[in-house]
Design goal:
Blueprint: E1 6-8, H1 15-19, E2 25-29, E3 33-35, E4 48-55, E5 58-63, E6 68-72, E7 77-86, E8 89-96, E9 98-103, E10 106-111, H2 126-137, E11 143-144, H3 153-165, E12 169-176, E13 179-188, H4 190-199
């Protein structure tokens, strides 16, 4: 069995070494995140990317399964580690100093330590933010689900029930057939105030 070998790229001189890896297939470390349109994480896939080209600007990797590509600067790459050869094709691992995140047609990068994943920043649910802010700003008013008219009523009902279950607010829930049919948010709890303090924009 051929032992895996790591090649560390610490200077621009190693562009020549990287050029030898063009057309190799690599798995990324850390694994690229997959995000939906709202920025929430999807299940990770340990995809094999192809090193398409190496130019003076960096190396371009491509993911045929989705059609995504990204130009990585040489300072994004920590090391290449060979894995195996199948039918004359080289496979390996590319350890990066950035976290890739695939969202829509784009591939974003976030700096990190070599190979260490960075959790995606999950956006705050706009219904939850509007609901808790309303309870904080108008502490003597009840908030029926239908009063947040900028959101679908069923979604507000679901979020009120979720926030009540998480101890963020006190609510009155109308249940029937094993589901919540309607909901009224009554007051903000201390945990809800803490949540607002953490996630509200400065």
């Amino acid at each position: 069995m051929r032992r895996a070998a790591a090649r560390v790229y610490n200077s621009a001189m190693n562009k020549d070494q990287l050029r030898k890896n063009v057309n190799d297939w690599v798995r990324l470390r850390p694994i690229a995140h997959r995000l939906d349109a709202s920025g929430h994480p999807l299940p990770q896939l340990d995809d094999e990317w192809r090193i398409e080209a190496v130019t003076d600007d960096g190396l371009r990797i491509y993911l045929p399964r989705t059609g995504h590509g990204r130009l990585l600067g040489f300072d994004h790459v920590c090391e290449y580690t060979s894995d195996r050869i199948e039918r004359g094709i080289n496979y390996g691992f590319l350890t990066l100093k950035v976290q890739l995140s695939i969202q829509g047609h784009d591939v974003h990068v976030t700096p990190t330590r070599p190979g260490i994943p960075v959790p995606p920043r999950i956006p705050v649910d706009p219904i939850r933010m509007a609901l808790l802010q309303r309870l904080r700003n108008f502490p003597r008013q009840f908030i029926p689900a239908g009063s947040l008219s900028q959101f679908p009523r069923d979604d507000v009902i679901t979020e009120i029930a979720r926030c009540e279950a998480e101890g963020l607010l006190e609510a009155q829930l109308l249940r029937g057939g094993g589901v919540v049919l309607d909901a009224v948010a009554l007051r903000l709890k201390p945990r809800g105030s803490d949540w607002l303090q953490q996630y509200s924009a400065p």
